[in-house]
Records
---
Amino acid sequence: MRFLTAALGFALPFAAAKVSYDGYKAFRIDDQLDYAGVQKALSDISFKSLSVENTRKGIEIAVAPESIKAFEALGLKTHVVHEDLGADIALEGQFKPYRASIKAFGANSSGELPDISYFNSYHELADHHQFLDDISAYLPDNSETFVAGKSVEGRDIKGIHLYGKEGAGKKPAIIWHGNVHAREWITGVTVEYLLYKIAEGYKKTGDESTATTLDNYDFYIIPVVNPDGFVYTTAEDRMWRKNRQVRQGKTCVGTDMNRNWPNQWDIPGGSSPEACSETYRGEAAGDTPEIAALTNHTLKVADAAGIKWYVDWHSYSQLILTPYGYDCNTDPANLDRQLELAGGLAKAIKSVHGVEFVYGPTCKTIYQAAGGSMDWVYDIAEAELAWGIELRPGSDDSNGFVLPPDQIVPSGEEQWAGAKWVFANF
Ligand SMILES: [Zn+2]
């Protein structure tokens, strides 16, 4: 049946999420309230918080249908992110067939590039993994897929290693991680778009700059580093952020993987010790299986030929964030260089669709965040550049984490232009 619907070109139905946001209206609160102040002001309102606790970028909440009138009567300064969050989730969740269509039409049997229509919709985890296999089949002499380790629930943390004419592991590394926060769906597909462009450019005659880049750098790309959380967003709760670790004696599930990296892990104010918090750091530095796998993998890559550029992709709010997150008064030795390149990247991104990205050190630009990936990769794995990039949409736009699929390609196009600028200038 799946085969038949795919062959006819229909969208496959989204596996209905069990947590319903139907009728929920999502707002960004623009008043200068802190998180505790918002919690207090909203004590009689039924809502789900979509922000982390210590944000300086405004607080986003989804208000339950029965509380919308009461919330609006509070007279807070807000703007609407989703008129009906549930309706937008349903639209976004119309996954189009990927592998099914390939089987139907016989494509890729000879290692062709995957169909670009992959980027017309979001996908299930299995399709993300299949996409990596298909890129590897297209570039058999210059790539291999790898598994960095297993998630809490035993899923593969699967990536692809691309290398140039001198073979694997000889050149400085570029490492890209996507979807550490489960609900940030635009990140995995945007990273895959960049992967697609590298693969396409390397084989195409005439794209000298991409060929040179891959001959000079090894790429290690993991589009979904939090597979359990991601699957949970496709099957249970679209707005889930953390991993799915169950801990003894804790009622809440999940650790924020991006507060669990073992470096400056428990700096006060940079994360939460409470298991129910969206920024719960875990009970010990690096005590999630996912971060254990990612630190091992990253150190192995660093030992081979060093790390030139690390990016951990997030959404949303259009930011290019450099170290440090853990402290606002400490700067990396090469901060000026990192900011110069981040500024060039922002300019290159803007040149494509006019979308503005702000750049700066994480703590000073967005919020204090300890135990984050970029600080660890910069300090411990000694990457030259270690960034977090927050993709579309902007913080003043509508949407948020639930970005319509027709923005996948534009997001990919502007990030590809940006990445090419970095390759040419770093
Ligand atoms: Zn994130």
---
Amino acid sequence: MSVYVITGVSKGIGFELVRQISEDTNTLVIGLVRDKAATEKKASLKQAAADTAQIIGDRGVDYLVANGAFPSHFDAYDPIGNLATKPQELEAVCSKLFQTNVVGNIHLFNLFLPSVMQGKVKKVIAISSGHADLDLINALEVENSALYAASKAAMNTIVAKFSAQYKRDGVLFVAVSPGVVEVGHYENVLPEQIEGLQRFMGKIAAYAPHFKGLTPVAEAVRTLRETWERLSIEGGFAGAFVSHFGNKQWL
Ligand SMILES: NC(=O)c1ccc[n+]([C@@H]2O[C@H](COP(=O)([O-])OP(=O)(O)OC[C@H]3O[C@@H](n4cnc5c(N)ncnc54)[C@H](OP(=O)(O)O)[C@@H]3O)[C@@H](O)[C@H]2O)c1
């Protein structure tokens, strides 16, 4: 039996991961959803780790998937220079991004590592974003999502640092982008945001002419899982940041 712990399973990719993985009766899936009040008290993850240890006993965790994240909309459609008119919101969003997407995952990794060490597979997968790839930003001049991208880049660095420490114990830490996935993020785009969205989509089309639009979440999750099965320390992926294809092709 394989044991999975996955964060951010209330909706989107996390929800679909739990749905697909739990179809296999030979798996035990523990999905974590945030309790906003407890999150504010910073006690929820510690409790979740203790509760998980109770459920799984000495079986350990095979796959720890850091999926939950704050997908900021504030910076999603505008170049960074345009955010200057709202400095307070910029600061608040940066703090929330760093706290959720970086610090939250540091706590997650530290708290669950003893269970991962007990597991057989020993894979820690952080769901990242192609937005964090410097070569892609520079080649396509991707202006939007600067703050979100920076939080994911910081998370990728943290993943590499955990890998540097725990690779020798056989734990694979890896950051994987899921591609551009349909989870309803663009359902409430405001008229003034449409231009920025179209600019971004135009750049995607130039980068990947085969791209036919947002990937349905079920398909994206299947691809993601197939890829993380292939990733290993022996294959050279310890601490790496890769796409859903397991390479640097982001779409
Ligand atoms: N969809 C894409 O195209 C895409 C592309 C690149 C990367 N990603 C990454 O894929 C992962 C899943 O995102 P998604 O697309 O499925 O988005 P989503 O549908 O918005 O789901 C995000 C999940 O993260 C949780 N979350 C949000 N803020 C949180 C916080 N402050 N603390 C703890 N949990 C929080 C949400 O819980 P609540 O319901 O409580 O808010 C939700 O379960 C994220 O890491 C995202 O960055 C997605």
